[in-house]
Write a structure and sequence with these properties.
Elements: E1 2-4, H1 7-16, E2 19-26, E3 29-36, E4 38-39, E5 43-48, H2 52-59, E6 62-72, E7 75-87, H3 90-104, H4 129-133, E8 135-149
């Protein structure tokens, strides 16, 4: 059986997962990347380093975000979100940092928090300070849809 998800089912998928796919576009070629995220019931929050996706979203804030949950290839659910990228600054960025740290920190592997990343010396220099700080953003949701298949 195939069908459409209710808004509550879409929200359940968004709340239960931490990895999604973020699509943005400039010109005729879409760009899609996996991202970690947190959904608070109103916004999708994320963090990124400077790079292609941030540049594209600054130029065109219209984005598409997709999350799925699969038991197998015949039993799955997928949520698709259309919204607007908002780069966060000041207190909004601090709030996003807190939300993401609180919700995603338990999922980080030990390799992500080893002390060697903070040691000084050859091979341990940061490329630049912005790669350490990151850019916090959120997606303001304009439209949600979802589909499922179950057998």
């Amino acid at each position: 059986m195939n069908g459409e998800l209710t808004e509550q089912q879409i929200n359940n998928i968004l709340c239960s997962q931490t990895f999604g796919r973020l699509a943005c576009c400039k010109g005729k070629h879409p760009y899609i990347v996996p991202v970690t995220y947190f959904y608070d019931g109103k916004f999708i929050y994320g963090k990124s380093s400077e790079g292609k996706k941030i540049d594209l979203m600054r130029d065109n804030p219209n984005v598409c975000f997709q999350v799925d949950f699969s038991r197998d290839m015949y039993n799955w659910e997928s949520a698709v979100i259309y919204g607007l990228f908002e780069e966060l600054k000041g207190e909004d960025a601090v709030k996003a940092k807190h939300i993401l740290s609180e919700k995603l920190m338990p999922l980080l592997s030990g390799v992500s928090i080893h002390a060697h990343e903070h040691d000084e010396g050859e091979g341990h220099e940061l490329i630049d300070e912005t790669s350490k700080r990151g850019i916090y953003f959120r997606i303001k949701i304009a439209e949600k849809s979802g589909r499922f298949q179950r057998i």
